[in-house]
Amino acid sequence: MPVPTDFRLEGPWEVVFSAPGLERIREVFVMTPTCKSGPCDVNVVIQDFSGHRLGTGTFRFDEGVYRLEASQKSVVTCTASSREVGAGATSSTVTTLAVAGYRPSGTAVVSVRVQGERQVAVTPIDGSGCAEVVASYDALGEPTRFAAARPTPRPTPKPTERPSVKAIKASYFGSGVTVKTYRVKGSSPYDISRSILKEGPYSDWLDRRAAGMTEAKPAYRFHFQPDGYGGCAIVIEKKPAIKITYTIILPRWKAGDSTPASTITWWNGHVRGIAKHEKVHVDLYRAAAKKLNSVLASSSCSNATKRLNRVWAEVNRKQCEFDMKEYGREAGLSLKACLAR
Prior knowledge:
By secondary structure, this protein is an alpha+beta fold. It has helices at residues 189-199, 261-297, 304-328, 335-339; strands at 11-18, 25-33, 42-47, 53-62, 65-80, 83-102, 111-124, 133-143, 177-184, 202-203, 208-209, 213-220, 222-226, 232-236, 242-253.
């Protein structure tokens, strides 16, 4: 719907481009109207959060909505047979954005935000041996108070400052956890992200491979014992009566001798972010385990199964709601489909 009549598109806006399994891209759009007052076309300088200029564009104003369409082509490096190939592929990026008014169902408040998409296609140059890649990002943005006004020089790490590749240990998640890994390759964040999409564990909900996954396995250490007179008792074989163990699946990556320090730093932050997401799933299950044991302690043979199933349904909903909040809505997924898994 159109933006409010008193709205003026200006100042810095944060725009986030996201896709399942890929690192989020955060950019700052510095908006400058071409007129002194009222609605009109708006020129844009696109920066990263360090202030480095990435490009320019223009939001065209028409019938209450600002629209931007931009495309960019470049020659990029890629990875073929575990080696980096310079100028091995062409990258085509098409970004389509709109600034408009949005009113959630059931409310009268109109908010203004950026929405749209970015399509990225990497086509190998003949003979390079690189893979063809297509990625689709959803875009969402809103005003921000931060935007660097000028580029900040990026320091070049000295050889002695080269960081080490970090691995996530099982102790990060707490007791009862086993960490399994799958190997990914690449010498750049883009190549590593594509390898994650190819090698990661398959998710029925996503209908594609995920970056990480949490598998919870409950052990029921109790049984129902009839007393021979029409009665029944719940016998605890070992405490806790219901125990959950966890298997966390994460990516594993090894840097080459020529891998840039910046890629190692990116990887350390990226794998930590994946692990942080999975730890929330583990924490939700741990809270459920406490409740399961508490419910069992106050149950009888006749109602225990029903009451325990109710707790499981509750934690499954919480797990799905967390995933929807993290990336599900941006990816066009649904809570109903998640609960049906």
